[in-house]
Amino acid sequence: MIEPLERAVKELKRLPGVGQKSAERLIFHLLTRDEEEVQRLSEAIQDLSTRVNRCEVCGNFSIGEKCDICSDHNRDRSKICVVSRPWDITKIESTQKYDGLYHVLGGLINPIEDVAPEDLSIGKLINRAKEEEVSEVILALEPKTEGESTSMFLVKKLRPLGVEISQIAQGIPVGRDLEFTDKATLGKAFEGRRGV
Amino acid sequence: MGLSREEVFVIRRIDFKESDQIVRLFGRKTGVFSGIAKGSRKLDSKFGSTFDLLNRAEVVYYHGSNLNFLSEGEALDNWESLKRSGDAIDVGLRCAKTISVLLAEGQTAPRVYDLFRATLEELDAHQEGPYLLEVAFYLKSLKYIGFDPDFDGRCLSCGAELDGETSLKFSPRAGGFLCDECKRGEGLKLSQGDRKNLVKLKRTPQSRLRRLKVPEEKLALYYRLLNRFSEYHLERELIPRSLRSSQGRGGALS
Ligand SMILES: [Zn+2]
Ligand SMILES: [Zn+2]
């Protein structure tokens, strides 16, 4: 394979779920498209690293320092929904059942993967929960072993602050990712959240 | 296509591709092995929540060219009570991590398997004070894989009785106690009471450990001792330094 092809294949293979064969297929496909289309794709990818930041308040993806949700004054600022990853926000937003703010932890506590509480955005969450306007923290972490453990850890840290703490869980089968939960089930899980 | 059926523990899982997972399993017959569970992250997956961490499950799998493919899986124990306690989950996950650290893929260790099962059963039955179970798990699993620290009341080097000594020195290098004469360099200071505790922790079955009364700060000391021993003899720590905070839950092993 000539050098530019080999390089492109090598880079694509770093992506999750892309092996040698699918990388080659994508490259050969791109080579048959016109230059303008390939340029647009290349710019879109470039933008990911140059234009997309993490919101300094909640950790969501954003263009500026604050994400669209944190800067939206119509959102209910008394509620913070805690998720493990930014794409869970997209999923919850699609249910249209929640109008509060979010907080992205950046993962779940898991000794098996060497993830300790200090590796996650927990201190920041505690500080946000101390703010006067916040009255409820909703835990929307995956109902699997690591998610449960992280939720329990957060409850221990949040309890002394006097905020109401609730957890979505009902309806979401144990061991699943929010990503794979359908809108209706997730929406119901939000409405039926229970205090912990 | 050879199908294998086996009883396993789920000790690690990694998301793979769109909706698959690669799971690391610990089987009583086969030891540690990995397999791919296709579609297992989907809502309607036939695997249900079989591959939730720590679950004991029965799986059927076949060997692909360089990967095992899981074709069936059913949870036998999902430890519902254990999973309602953060401390118990931590201990369970740290023990699972230790299995990955201590055993190579394919190395069979049925006694470690039974020990892990007994540990999870105890954690599921009683969630308080899980650190006794954890330290005993480390002590016993080291023993079962052939690295057995010696807590006899004799100097490992010259054989001198140490019964009269109030303060003992444990040498991670020697894997046991040394008398004042034989001791070179640093050792961990222990009391006769510590020595007896360690002997008891190693000998007492997990199901009867709760009767032993060992203060948490003592458990932290024994944990350090085992880590030093493991560093010396296995060239790795039982648990990485960053995770010893016991998740800030005020646990013993900080
Ligand atoms: Zn934000
Ligand atoms: Zn001696």
Key features?
heterodimer; A: 196 residues; alpha/beta; Helicase, Ruva Protein, domain 3; Dna Topoisomerase Vi A Subunit, Chain: A, domain 2; 2 domains; five-stranded mixed beta sheet; two-stranded antiparallel ribbon; 8 helices; 43% helix; 14% strand; B: 254 residues; alpha+beta; OB fold (Dihydrolipoamide Acetyltransferase, E2P); de novo design (two linked rop proteins); five-stranded mixed β-barrel; three-stranded antiparallel beta sheet; elongated; disordered C terminus; binds zinc ion
The CATH topology of the largest domain in chain B is given as de novo design (two linked rop proteins)
Assign a percent range to the helix content of chain B.
25-40%
Shape of chain A: elongated
How much of the polypeptide of chain A forms β-strand, as a percent range?
Answer: 5-15%
Order of helices and strands of chain A: HHHEEHEHEHEHEHE
Task: Indicate the structural class of chain B.
Answer: alpha+beta
- Provide the CATH top-level class of the largest domain in chain A: Alpha Beta
Count of alpha/pi helices of chain A: 8
